[in-house]
Amino acid sequence: MRIAIISPYSNGPTRGNIITVRRIIHYLENSGIEVMLLPADSMSQDEMLINLRNFSPDIVHAFHAYYCGPIAHSLASKIRKPFIISITGSDINEPAFRTHPSTAFALAKTTAIICFDKKCAESVKSHFPGTSDKLTIIPQGVESLPLSANPFPGIPDDVFVLLLPATLRPVKQIEFAITASAPLTSSINKLLLVIAGGAVDAAYSDKIKLLLGINLHAIWVGDIAHDKMGDLYNRADIVLNCSEYEEMPNSLLEAMRLGRPVLAADIRGNRSLITHGNTGWLYNGKSDFQKMIQYLAKSPETCKQIGKQARQHISNNFSSETESQLHINLYTKIILNNSSPETDIR
Question: Largest Cα–Cα distance of the chain, in whole Å?
């Protein structure tokens, strides 16, 4: 079996899409699947087509309906193969992408649409009613990140660390984490907000840097190599997610897999991983965020117990091996259907 994957990003700061695609490719290849990666940010469609014709894939798999769906349709049509789309987040949650004709066109033409959970599938069905029979749910997997014998450098031992793993772009609402946590420095001794992620949006990054200049309880450590993030998660007292929207964020998966307590915005993608008070905590608004941080800072044993429950939950339900096998099952079904002489090549 040969699968061509079109990804929106391959260069620049580490993003969830990059982590997801790399993980899926790794486990597919471990299962004996031949995979070709075609990154849309560094390869033209003409270059992709040459590679596809030489590789001769059975399926073209696009990650992100807006960025990669139309490309996959064009290329798959030329090589007369089916294509599928994985919904990754902004393609269904960002109005400019969701309502763009290119997104609707790609979803109408694709053979299958992969969503991370049932709520995401319901959202796709609601916005694109003709897609019901194409939807399939494949929860994300997660790998346990390596831990070294040394603590993450540059963070004193005696500080209470709030970690926000997030690239610098508006959807991550980093300014909320900075301004909402600032008043807590009067009640939580040596509170430190650590922001880890590359600068993606230049104007927004400048705004965040200005905020950091006047909020000395917060620091930005930049883009951290993925294999070093385990030590940073392990140093955090609480891992945050403050995003406007998400689709099963890798940062929460990784933190919870390591048994870290997490506090996240009460949005659909975060609710796909967190049951409030059982596998983590969810907040609604600034006041709730502050009350939860104050409570958790005084409750280390509760944090430890919930972290254990989070680790077990992720271990039981978000296996990379299962994620890979479910992809293989879907690929196999499509290939068998496509081998029928009655199949309409879209």
Answer: 71
Q: Say how far apart CA 331 and CA 84 lie, in whole Å.
A: 9
Distance between CA 70 and CA 40 in Å, rounded? 11
Left (φ > 0), alpha (ψ -120 to 50) or beta: where does 89 sit? left
For residue 236, which of 150, 336, 151 has the smallest C-alpha distance?
A: 151
CATH code for the domain defined by 160-317: 3.40.50.2000
Convert the pLDDT of each residue in 248-282 to its tens digit.
Answer: 999 999 999 999 999 999 999 999 999 999 999 99
| pLDDT tens by residue, 65-76 | 999 999 999 999
- pTM over 0.85? The answer is yes
Residue 228, CA atoms < 13 Å, CB-side half-sphere: 12
**202 in Cβ contact with 235 (< 8 Å):** no
Which residue has 């049932």 as its token pair? 118
Four-way CATH pick for 2-141+319-338: 3.30.1440.10, 3.10.450.50, 3.20.20.20, 3.40.50.2000? 3.40.50.2000
Contact criterion met (CB below 8 Å) for 195 and 221: yes
